[in-house]
Amino acid sequence: MFLDLDGTLLEIAQRPEDVEVPHALLDGLYRAHNTLAGAVAIISGRKLDDIDKLLSPLKLSAAGSHGLQQRIGDDFLEWLTPQHQAMAEQIAMRLQDFASGDHRLLLERKPGTVALHYRLAPGREKDCRDAILGAVCKNPLFQVMHGKMVFEARPAGMNKGGAIVSFMDRGPFHGRIPVFIGDDVTDEDGFRRVNLLGGISIKVGAGATLADYRVLTVVDAREIVFRIASGEPITTPALFVATKEKGR
User: Fold this and answer.
1) 27: which residues sit within 8 A by CB, 6+ positions away?
2) Which residues contact 238 (CB under 8 A, 6 or more apart)?
3) In-domain check, residue 26
4) Is 133 inside a domain boundary?
5) Domain boundary among 116, 134, 155
6) CA-to-CA distance for 70 and 170, rounded, in angstroms?
7) Which domain holds residue 29?
8) What pLDDT digit, counting tens, does each position of 135-146 carry?
9) Cα–Cα distance between 23 and 164 in angstroms, integer?
10) Is 4 a catalytic residue?
């Protein structure tokens, strides 16, 4: 089981640090981890330290920064290079003046990536897009992704789909059927990979998607975790519906 956090298991907050993690979710993740013999991983755009802080005292397998940071059990898989870090810092420095000029904008520095949040200033979407594209300066080693009220610069080719494939080759994940639940554009790479692996891809919320199934809310996504934690089937039609056509 591979799980995104924000917008999937956690309601999106105005600022990333303001999200709330229900105790029942922590308990469900702990029980799911035991039920699946350790084959549960968080696949997030957040950095690993933030994931661990949010889910404390749990320390699940996880991929942070869209796969640049990967940990399976206690083993770290190194994908983050000094070059990634240096280029991300250059991009962040170019964006600093722009972001600091509007207190509603949030510039988030992460290992190897930079995110520019405009949730508190939705009218500045175009300005933020132009600013981050200018900061990347057509660098072929980086790409800009547009998520929910955020633009993010990250190394080209690094995504959640690649992280899932990496996990499926190792440890408790190897040889099993992957389930991935996500909600945003950055999760589509994960849906694509899971579909190719013959797994179950589930999108949370509305919008075009490659996922085979859809649930409507974060509460529904948590219910899937709770059912797996209890060893119950998750194929109940009332829980999620098939996306009748890919991309719908």
Assistant:
1) none
2) none
3) yes
4) yes
5) 155
6) 12
7) 2-79+158-242
8) 998 888 899 999
9) 26
10) yes
User: Which tokens in the block code for residue 189?
Assistant: 């790479």
Tens of pLDDT, residues 179-201 = 999 999 999 999 999 999 999 99
Please indicate, yes or no, whether residues 171 and 223 belong to a single structural domain of this protein. Answer: yes
User: Among 112, 106, 113, 143, which residue's Cα sits nearest to residue 128?
Assistant: 106
Domain total in the chain: 2
- Tokens at 43, concatenated: 């696949």
| Contact predicate 154/113, CB 8 Å | yes
Cα 213 to the center of its chain, rounded Å: 18
Q: Say whether both 166 and 220 belong to one domain.
A: yes
- pLDDT tens per residue, range 35-51: 999 999 999 999 999 99
The CATH number of the domain holding residue 65 is 3.40.50.1000
Residue 248 belongs to a domain: no
| Exposure b/e, 12-46, CB count within 10 A at least 16 = b | beeebeebebeeebeebbbbbbebbeebbbbbbbb
